[in-house]
Amino acid sequence: MSHFTCYLFRSISLGIAILATTVPVLAKEVNPTINLNPNIRSIVSSKPGLDIGLQPIIAQDIPLKPSSQPVASTPAPTNQKQPLGLGVSTGIGTLGIGVNVAKSLTPQVNGRLGFNFGKLDLNRTDSGISYDSQLNLSSVQLLGDYYPFSSSGFRVTGGLVAQNNTFSVTGKPSNGSYTINNTQYPASAVGSLTGEYKYANSIAPYVGIGIGKSTSDGFGFNADLGVMFTGSPKVSLNASNPTFNNNPITRNQLDNQVRQTESDLKGFNVYPVISVGLSYGF
Questions:
Q1: Whole-model pTM?
Q2: What is the SS3 string spanning the chain?
């Protein structure tokens, strides 16, 4: 065997011996302990053999498979009370005792339907004649309430009132006589002097302001302040004695008294409306 061949075999044997002693040490240094997140799987691949120290450690992160179950959502309340936007109210005022039903049309507008009734005894003197009078109140109203401020119960109101408010009057003689059209007549000749004052406009426009929203849930307070444009009262006057009532001369005196009273009441062409009450909304 030549020297070259012997040298070649010795070199190979020496290389094998060096690899046998160094590869385990390199493998220990290159492959440290790997702490993995419990949600991640690590796959480490390596090749066995003499070149183990030359292979990198490959860590592959595999995300967990998302759950196929749907995420539970909070169920919507099923028994929550929904307001109906309805309200009823009752009150007392210059139109008598009133009852109203209201419906919310928009957040700022209510429609209101109501009726009023009542009687009130008064003493009055018109054109020189004193009367025992009774105010008979009867009306139906259709109104709209506008609330300009959402956080307030203040309202502006407008609408129509179908009214039949009348004064029934009975004359009271003074010292046993009546003064009719500036002329004195014995009460015995006249009998009972009765009459009626009735406002000219049976359908009266109404404008006003108020507080309270009867369609709000629960109990509430309400008040109104406004005017009806009723027109001036129309007056009728009659004597219970037919002779006095139908005689052309005395009848003319009664008619002149009527015209005088209507003239005196001409400025009373609006009717004041004031009322206070309670309401309940649904």
A1: 0.68
A2: CCHHHHHHHHHHHHHHHHHHHHHHHHHHHHCCCCCCCCCCECCCCCCCCCCHHHCCCCCCCECCCCCCCCCCCCCCCCCCCCCCCEEEEEEEECCEEEEEEEEEEECCEEEEEEEEEEEEEEEEEECCEEEEEEEEEEEEEEEEEECCCCCCCEEEEEEEEEECCEEEEEEECECCEEEECCEEEEHHHHCCEEEEEEECCCEEEEEEEEECCCCCEEEEEEEEEEEECCCCEEEEEEECCHHHHHCHHHHHHHHHHHHHHHHHCCCCCCEEEEEEEEEEEC
